[in-house]
Amino acid sequence: MVETVSLQDLFKTLKKRTLLIFLTTLLAVTAAGVISYQLLTPVYQASTQILVNQQKGVQNQFNTQDIQTNLQLINTYNVIIKSPAILSKVIEDLDLSTTLATLNGKITVNSAQNSQVVNVSVQDSSPNMAVEIANTTAEVFRVEIQKLMNVDNVTILSPAVLSNNPSPIKPDPFLNMAIAAVIGLMLGVGIAFLLEYLDTTLKTEQDVEELLGLPIIGLVSKITVKDMPDDKKKTKRKRRKRGDGLVQKKETANVSHLT
């Protein structure tokens, strides 16, 4: 027999396990907030922009061919900036106790499409160090590129600046807690349906019929006072009054006996 689950049964399961789903979501959000604010190290970013041109042509001007050549060399410049030839001098100038691979992982180099401007971004746990690495990398590249590719027209458009109140770019506690809320909600719903699936207790007549493989002939329903006929309600009330009267007589007899 193929077991079918109606949409109403799904909502009943969710309603039944509402507290479990809520607690799971709350726990996930709380854990994400604690981890984001207390355990994860904040990371700051500093950026600088470099304009790279080839040697100037006649009358101190650039022609279209020079610009196209510069655009084609942008990818080469991006690779050179993160090469050991540049980064080793950055480590030496700043006296950094780090490796080339670690420093390389902190630096991101990119450029907009059809642009001769190179963006150098540095991420570090110290905002001051991020600014120093970005500016030193740009300056070392400006000097060394003349020797490597005979390019003598490199301009630093905007050096990295340390703001008065720098804010980290990551972690983002609110984003982490939002993601944790979604994950916690999904986890809570999954646990709710799993518990419902593992619950093999008999709840309805259909469960009994499926277990025994026999048709149900009749049901014995629970009868409340509201469901009783009026005459039976009166009889029950009379019995209750008689019982109260007997209790009162017993209490009176006990008091007389004591006196």
Automatic annotation (TrEMBL):
This is Wzz/FepE/Etk N-terminal domain-containing protein. The chain crosses the membrane at residues 20-40, 174-195. It is found in: Cell membrane. Residues 4-94 form the Polysaccharide chain length determinant N-terminal domain. It is a multi-pass membrane protein. Residues 243-252 have a biased composition (Basic and acidic residues). Residues 144-194 form the Tyrosine-protein kinase G-rich domain. Residues 228-259 are annotated as: Disordered. Belongs to the CpsC/CapA family. GO terms for cellular component: plasma membrane. One of its GO terms (molecular function) is protein tyrosine kinase activity. Its main location: membrane. It comes from the Bacteria. It comes from Sporosarcina thermotolerans. Keywords: Cell membrane, Membrane, Transmembrane, Transmembrane helix.
